[in-house]
Amino acid sequence: MNRVDYDCIVIGGGGAGYAAASTAAKLGARVAMVERDRLGGTCLNVGCVPTKTLVRSAEVLETVRRAAEFGVEVGDIRLDFRAVKARMRSIIAAMSGEGPEESLREQSIELLRGNAAFIDAQALRVGDRVYRAEQFVIATGSEPVIPPIPGFDAVPCLTSDDLLERDDLPASMLVVGGGIVGCEFASIYNAFGTNVAIVGSNLLSNEDDDVGEELARAFTERGIEVLTGSKATGLRREVNSTLVSIEYGDERTEERPAEVVLLAVGRRPRLDGLNIAAAGVTLSEQGSVEVGPDMATSVPHIWAAGDVTGMHMYTHAGDYMGEVAGWNAAGGTPKREARLAVVPRPVYSAPEVAAIGLTEREANELPCGIEVAKVRFADVSRAVINGETGGWCKIIAESRTGRILGTAIVGPRANELIGEVAVAMDGGVSAWVLGDTLHPYPTVSEIVRWTADQIGKTSHAEDPDIRRPLYSRELAELTVGGSNTTTGVPVTDEQMSALLGVHAGYGEEEDCVGEPVGRK
């Protein structure tokens, strides 16, 4: 019988991998982590941390530039870009350094350095050694996509990873791609004084059209040239610049010069060299590792988490998937499933954009009726006080129940505000309840309340009680867990939906039956 070196080997030392390894170790598993490069993965080294450090410098610079609007006089304003980059690197160093390795040692997780490659479904080669384990978690992350456009392989172009390494500030930059990465870097370098243009079909095309349109207006006001309805079709190099061929929807074409071309057309799962076919793991057509809700792959003892699954490429989602994968790999009971219906989608552009749940476009395809409410920041006192009145909050809800189906926010603190909606959606709090919940005045958080408050005002105006929390109604008695009990907070989304349906005048009480959830 072949030896087993570990209970679980986690491949990848990013956020998802760390969460998986840590969770498995806490359950008593003998765990090893394989990492060929820097611990911390994309987020710490070339993603969230460095880019948000640059975002903060850009925010401070904009605040100083606007100081006169608030009665504050400042002298000459000068950006020291090398100092900005030095601060970025110092923060990365402070958050990495010996910290991650020390944390692994404290948890008795062994770090294996080198490239990993499956030999078969039970064995993994790392460097010149072979290790065997009962369970594996694949968390190898993602890498920038290089589009198959003529000239892109011959002309020097930069990915977001490359751009973070440069200490010189380009005079001009053309961003190819209107997704999250493209919009964030366009905002950052525009604030730093670079002449920025962005090419793509739309901005943030995965969101509703009004989101991209609002962001495009804000970009244009800030001096970013937004070339939507276009695509890059080729590149060629001249002495001091790169010429990008652009084709528009009306078949017009032109060449645009830029000192720097940033490729920001998305990321793809990183699986090169892993020899995943030897393990028998099934991949999707897009090249991601296919997983079920429990994060299991097609091979029962091999799990996957994070960007490599192709789902929700956000650090917060990857970490959560890693926790679920690590728990299940270590035999945690009861078995867990990842609840990924409510994942915040933040964009750290200027202005910020955040969304969660369904888009309005997706919600319109549901068989139920929906209501959509929108409130502008210009109508919120604190936003006016702060001089940040651009943008809005939009909430999409089910008409008969008030259940929040999705939300989009464009404007100040959007990525902080979306957390409240995440709690409401995950906890089954209706828009009616959220709209009746007091928020401190004056804060920008009021925009969430006022938007939710618009839902159901017409259709349920004759029944004010329906806007109260389900669990506070004295007469809200349903058969739950086999006995009549005053209803508490349901333990499942299905129960919450059923409860909302009953109180809205439709639905069956027996659909609410589950574990006892009455008041204790």
Write the layout of secondary structure elements.
Elements: E1 6-11, H1 15-26, E2 31-35, H2 41-46, H3 48-65, H4 81-95, H5 99-106, E3 110-113, E4 116-120, E5 123-126, E6 129-138, E7 142-144, H6 160-165, E8 172-176, H7 180-191, E9 195-200, H8 209-222, E10 225-228, E11 230-237, E12 242-248, E13 253-258, E14 260-263, E15 267-269, E16 302-304, H9 315-329, E17 345-347, E18 353-357, H10 360-363, E19 370-376, H11 381-386, E20 392-398, E21 404-410, H12 414-426, H13 431-435, H14 446-453, E22 477-480, E23 483-486, H15 493-503
Helix pairs in contact: 1-9, 3-4, 3-7
Walkthrough of the structure:
- Strands 1, 2, 3, 4, 5, 6 and 16 form a 7-stranded mixed beta sheet that branches.
- This protein has 4 domains: 6-40 and 96-143 and 269-329, 3-Layer(bba) Sandwich (FAD/NAD(P)-binding domain), CATH 3.50.50.60; 160-265, 3-Layer(bba) Sandwich (FAD/NAD(P)-binding domain), CATH 3.50.50; 351-467, Enolase-like, domain 1 (2-Layer Sandwich), CATH 3.30.390.30; 470-512, no CATH class.
- A hairpin with a 2-residue loop joins strand 4 (116-120) and strand 5 (123-126).
- Helix content is 29%, strand content 23%.
- 45% of the residues are buried.
- Helix 1 runs parallel beside helix 9 (315-329) and helix 3 (48-65) packs parallel to helix 7.
- It has 15 helices and 23 strands.
- It has helices spanning 15-26, 41-46, 48-65, 81-95, 99-106, 160-165, 180-191, 209-222, 315-329, 360-363, 381-386, 414-426, 431-435, 446-453, 493-503; strands at 6-11, 31-35, 110-113, 116-120, 123-126, 129-138, 142-144, 172-176, 195-200, 225-228, 230-237, 242-248, 253-258, 260-263, 267-269, 302-304, 345-347, 353-357, 370-376, 392-398, 404-410, 477-480, 483-486.
- By secondary structure, the protein is of the alpha/beta class.
- The radius of gyration is 25 Å and the shape is globular.
